[in-house]
Specification:
Blueprint (H helix, E strand, L loop, with lengths): L2 H21 L1 H7 L5 H19 L9 H25 L4 H8 L2 H13 L5 H18 L9 H23 L5 H22 L9 H27 L3 H8 L1 H13 L6 H28 L1
Amino acid sequence: MSEKRTGVLARLALVTCTLIWGSGFSVMKNTLDSVGSFSLLAIRFSIASLLLSAVFCLKFRKMNMGYITGGAALGLFIGAAYALQTVGLSFTTPGKNAFFTVVYCLIVPFLNWAVAKKRPDRYNITAAVLCLAGVGLASAAPEGGNVNVGDLLTLCSGFLFACHIVAVSRIAPGKDVILLTIWQFIFSALIMWAAAFAANDFPGKLGGGAIASLLYLGIVATAVALMLQNVGQKYAPPSTAALIMSLESVFGVAFSVIFTHERLTPRLVLGFALIFAALVISEAKPGMKQKSLS
């Protein structure tokens, strides 16, 4: 397969991943009414790890310590990021939670600079700022408000999501991405079960709706979506991956407009336009550079 086609498929995988996450936001919110934050994440990652382990059991033949250590690092980052984001959601509005999480699209180019010594160019910086502004318009709560503990926890989760994106770009090359993803889920589940035990955060009797929601979150929004994320990130630059994945909050708003009849305001339209402009700048920058030199 050509490098160009691989890049296109990687970006398609990332867009599909964010589409799934956006559609599952309301499911997550409703499930938190009957299941605690840590136990929800523990169940979610457990379902994902068991499912992928069963489907791809033959891949364990490739096992070595590199997968265990790499999976532990990725599991720590993604587990802690989701935990802070989910707990933060309890103290702030969903819009502000989405906005502050997506600071990773601004952090990744600079974090990658520190790790890989690859300096972000002006297109990375411009695209990241436009993307952040667009997501802010599309998802920030209209009522605004002061920064609270939930906002600070969510900002910390955004930094950890950025660490995860950069870590995948460093750890995934040369490895089977699916096997690496399985170990990531295993370690994330162990961390969340430990947190649930420490916080005595176990669910009581679950109804059919809660069980269905947990299965959706575990199978579709975790096993499928995060596997697509890791596959896409293996073949896409970290800065581009971060920008594409910031579409999660945009898709969340779009599904809300479609299924809950949320009013499409000028603020939302302007937010979508800024994010689209950021993606165009990020993806078209080689052509821009060539044109500026001609």
